[in-house]
Amino acid sequence: MAPTSLARLSIVAAPLYREELGAHLRDLRHRRGERLADTASRAGVSTQYLSEIERGRKDPSSEIVEAVSVALGTTVGDVAIAVGHRLRDLARAPGTSLRARAFALAA
Amino acid sequence: MAPTSLARLSIVAAPLYREELGAHLRDLRHRRGERLADTASRAGVSTQYLSEIERGRKDPSSEIVEAVSVALGTTVGDVAIAVGHRLRDLARAPGTSLRARAFALAA
To answer: Which PROSITE patterns does the record associate with it (chains A, B) (predicted)?
Structure first.
Protein backbone atom coordinates (compact mmCIF):
# COMPACT_ATOMS: atom_id res chain seq x y z
CA MET A 1 0.00 0.00 0.00
CA ALA A 2 1.43 3.37 -1.00
CA PRO A 3 1.92 6.11 1.62
CA THR A 4 -0.89 8.15 0.07
CA SER A 5 -3.30 5.26 0.56
CA LEU A 6 -2.24 4.92 4.20
CA ALA A 7 -2.79 8.63 4.72
CA ARG A 8 -6.23 8.34 3.17
CA LEU A 9 -7.10 5.40 5.40
CA SER A 10 -5.99 7.41 8.42
CA ILE A 11 -8.34 10.23 7.46
CA VAL A 12 -11.21 7.84 6.89
CA ALA A 13 -10.56 6.18 10.25
CA ALA A 14 -11.32 9.47 11.99
CA PRO A 15 -14.81 10.53 10.92
CA LEU A 16 -15.55 14.17 11.58
CA TYR A 17 -18.01 15.34 14.20
CA ARG A 18 -20.28 16.99 11.61
CA GLU A 19 -20.54 13.73 9.64
CA GLU A 20 -21.82 11.71 12.60
CA LEU A 21 -23.93 14.65 13.79
CA GLY A 22 -25.63 14.75 10.40
CA ALA A 23 -26.12 10.98 10.31
CA HIS A 24 -27.64 11.03 13.81
CA LEU A 25 -30.03 13.89 13.03
CA ARG A 26 -31.12 12.09 9.86
CA ASP A 27 -31.71 8.89 11.88
CA LEU A 28 -33.84 10.82 14.39
CA ARG A 29 -35.88 12.37 11.57
CA HIS A 30 -36.42 9.02 9.88
CA ARG A 31 -37.55 7.45 13.16
CA ARG A 32 -40.22 10.15 13.31
CA GLY A 33 -41.23 9.41 9.73
CA GLU A 34 -40.70 13.03 8.72
CA ARG A 35 -39.63 14.62 5.46
CA LEU A 36 -36.75 17.11 5.41
CA ALA A 37 -39.24 19.91 4.82
CA ASP A 38 -41.26 19.00 7.93
CA THR A 39 -38.33 19.13 10.32
CA ALA A 40 -36.67 22.10 8.61
CA SER A 41 -39.85 24.13 8.82
CA ARG A 42 -40.22 23.59 12.57
CA ALA A 43 -36.52 24.30 13.14
CA GLY A 44 -36.71 27.50 11.12
CA VAL A 45 -34.03 26.48 8.61
CA SER A 46 -34.26 25.86 4.89
CA THR A 47 -34.79 22.34 3.60
CA GLN A 48 -31.59 22.64 1.58
CA TYR A 49 -29.57 23.65 4.64
CA LEU A 50 -30.93 20.80 6.76
CA SER A 51 -30.07 18.42 3.92
CA GLU A 52 -26.48 19.71 3.90
CA ILE A 53 -26.25 19.29 7.68
CA GLU A 54 -27.55 15.72 7.47
CA ARG A 55 -24.97 14.88 4.81
CA GLY A 56 -22.18 16.26 7.01
CA ARG A 57 -21.34 19.04 4.56
CA LYS A 58 -21.77 21.91 7.05
CA ASP A 59 -20.65 22.56 10.61
CA PRO A 60 -23.89 24.11 11.90
CA SER A 61 -23.76 26.79 14.58
CA SER A 62 -24.75 25.88 18.14
CA GLU A 63 -28.00 27.80 17.64
CA ILE A 64 -28.91 25.73 14.57
CA VAL A 65 -28.10 22.43 16.31
CA GLU A 66 -30.29 23.58 19.21
CA ALA A 67 -33.19 24.44 16.89
CA VAL A 68 -32.98 21.17 14.94
CA SER A 69 -32.64 19.12 18.13
CA VAL A 70 -35.75 20.72 19.62
CA ALA A 71 -37.61 20.23 16.33
CA LEU A 72 -36.75 16.52 16.58
CA GLY A 73 -38.03 16.31 20.15
CA THR A 74 -34.65 15.99 21.83
CA THR A 75 -31.95 18.16 23.39
CA VAL A 76 -28.50 19.34 22.37
CA GLY A 77 -27.03 17.40 25.29
CA ASP A 78 -28.61 14.11 24.26
CA VAL A 79 -27.59 14.68 20.64
CA ALA A 80 -23.97 15.35 21.64
CA ILE A 81 -23.84 12.19 23.76
CA ALA A 82 -25.29 10.08 20.95
CA VAL A 83 -22.89 11.54 18.38
CA GLY A 84 -19.97 11.01 20.76
CA HIS A 85 -20.88 7.35 21.13
CA ARG A 86 -21.18 6.98 17.35
CA LEU A 87 -17.67 8.40 16.95
CA ARG A 88 -16.31 6.23 19.75
CA ASP A 89 -17.89 3.09 18.27
CA LEU A 90 -16.45 3.88 14.84
CA ALA A 91 -12.99 4.38 16.34
CA ARG A 92 -13.22 1.04 18.14
CA ALA A 93 -14.49 -1.05 15.24
CA PRO A 94 -11.96 -0.47 12.44
CA GLY A 95 -12.65 -3.90 10.99
CA THR A 96 -16.27 -3.23 10.18
CA SER A 97 -17.75 0.14 9.44
CA LEU A 98 -14.45 1.98 8.97
CA ARG A 99 -13.20 -0.54 6.46
CA ALA A 100 -16.49 -0.29 4.64
CA ARG A 101 -16.11 3.49 4.59
CA ALA A 102 -12.56 3.20 3.27
CA PHE A 103 -13.69 0.89 0.48
CA ALA A 104 -16.56 3.20 -0.33
CA LEU A 105 -14.17 6.14 -0.68
CA ALA A 106 -11.66 4.12 -2.70
CA ALA A 107 -14.34 2.94 -5.13
CA MET B 1 -39.16 39.55 38.57
CA ALA B 2 -39.68 41.53 35.39
CA PRO B 3 -40.37 39.76 32.07
CA THR B 4 -36.95 40.76 30.77
CA SER B 5 -35.30 39.04 33.73
CA LEU B 6 -37.35 35.91 33.09
CA ALA B 7 -36.33 35.94 29.46
CA ARG B 8 -32.71 36.30 30.47
CA LEU B 9 -33.02 33.41 32.89
CA SER B 10 -34.53 31.32 30.12
CA ILE B 11 -31.55 32.04 27.89
CA VAL B 12 -29.14 31.21 30.69
CA ALA B 13 -31.01 27.95 31.37
CA ALA B 14 -30.17 26.70 27.86
CA PRO B 15 -26.39 26.96 27.51
CA LEU B 16 -25.14 26.59 23.98
CA TYR B 17 -23.02 23.67 22.82
CA ARG B 18 -20.02 25.90 22.08
CA GLU B 19 -20.10 27.33 25.61
CA GLU B 20 -19.84 23.93 27.29
CA LEU B 21 -17.41 22.71 24.62
CA GLY B 22 -15.15 25.65 25.43
CA ALA B 23 -15.46 25.13 29.18
CA HIS B 24 -14.62 21.44 28.81
CA LEU B 25 -11.58 22.05 26.60
CA ARG B 26 -10.34 24.66 29.09
CA ASP B 27 -10.81 22.15 31.94
CA LEU B 28 -8.83 19.53 30.03
CA ARG B 29 -6.03 22.02 29.38
CA HIS B 30 -5.92 23.11 33.02
CA ARG B 31 -5.76 19.50 34.18
CA ARG B 32 -2.64 19.12 32.03
CA GLY B 33 -1.19 22.29 33.55
CA GLU B 34 -0.74 23.85 30.13
CA ARG B 35 -0.85 27.44 28.94
CA LEU B 36 -3.07 28.42 26.02
CA ALA B 37 0.03 28.83 23.85
CA ASP B 38 1.22 25.27 24.58
CA THR B 39 -2.01 23.60 23.50
CA ALA B 40 -2.66 25.99 20.62
CA SER B 41 0.78 25.38 19.20
CA ARG B 42 0.35 21.60 19.16
CA ALA B 43 -3.18 21.94 17.70
CA GLY B 44 -1.93 24.27 14.97
CA VAL B 45 -4.26 27.13 15.89
CA SER B 46 -3.49 30.61 17.19
CA THR B 47 -3.50 31.28 20.91
CA GLN B 48 -6.15 33.96 20.38
CA TYR B 49 -8.43 31.57 18.51
CA LEU B 50 -8.11 28.84 21.16
CA SER B 51 -8.94 31.46 23.79
CA GLU B 52 -12.10 32.41 21.88
CA ILE B 53 -13.09 28.74 21.60
CA GLU B 54 -12.56 28.20 25.34
CA ARG B 55 -14.73 31.22 26.13
CA GLY B 56 -17.52 29.86 23.91
CA ARG B 57 -17.29 32.75 21.48
CA LYS B 58 -16.71 30.64 18.37
CA ASP B 59 -18.30 27.52 16.92
CA PRO B 60 -15.11 25.79 15.79
CA SER B 61 -15.15 23.56 12.71
CA SER B 62 -15.04 19.80 13.17
CA GLU B 63 -11.42 19.85 11.98
CA ILE B 64 -10.42 22.35 14.68
CA VAL B 65 -12.23 20.41 17.43
CA GLU B 66 -10.39 17.29 16.22
CA ALA B 67 -7.01 19.03 16.32
CA VAL B 68 -7.56 20.54 19.78
CA SER B 69 -8.90 17.25 21.15
CA VAL B 70 -5.84 15.35 19.92
CA ALA B 71 -3.56 18.08 21.30
CA LEU B 72 -5.22 17.53 24.67
CA GLY B 73 -4.69 13.77 24.51
CA THR B 74 -8.30 12.83 23.91
CA THR B 75 -10.71 12.17 21.04
CA VAL B 76 -13.59 14.05 19.46
CA GLY B 77 -15.95 11.28 20.58
CA ASP B 78 -14.94 11.51 24.22
CA VAL B 79 -15.14 15.30 24.10
CA ALA B 80 -18.65 15.19 22.62
CA ILE B 81 -19.84 12.75 25.29
CA ALA B 82 -18.38 14.88 28.09
CA VAL B 83 -19.91 18.08 26.67
CA GLY B 84 -23.25 16.33 26.23
CA HIS B 85 -23.24 15.30 29.89
CA ARG B 86 -22.32 18.84 30.96
CA LEU B 87 -25.32 20.16 29.00
CA ARG B 88 -27.60 17.46 30.38
CA ASP B 89 -26.48 18.13 33.96
CA LEU B 90 -27.03 21.86 33.55
CA ALA B 91 -30.53 21.27 32.19
CA ARG B 92 -31.37 19.01 35.14
CA ALA B 93 -29.99 21.17 37.95
CA PRO B 94 -31.56 24.63 37.50
CA GLY B 95 -31.29 25.31 41.22
CA THR B 96 -27.53 25.09 41.37
CA SER B 97 -25.19 25.84 38.53
CA LEU B 98 -27.74 27.60 36.37
CA ARG B 99 -28.71 29.96 39.15
CA ALA B 100 -25.06 30.65 39.76
CA ARG B 101 -24.66 31.41 36.06
CA ALA B 102 -27.68 33.72 36.11
CA PHE B 103 -26.27 35.62 39.06
CA ALA B 104 -22.91 35.82 37.38
CA LEU B 105 -24.50 37.30 34.25
CA ALA B 106 -26.62 39.73 36.27
CA ALA B 107 -23.62 40.97 38.26
So the answer is: HTH_CROC1
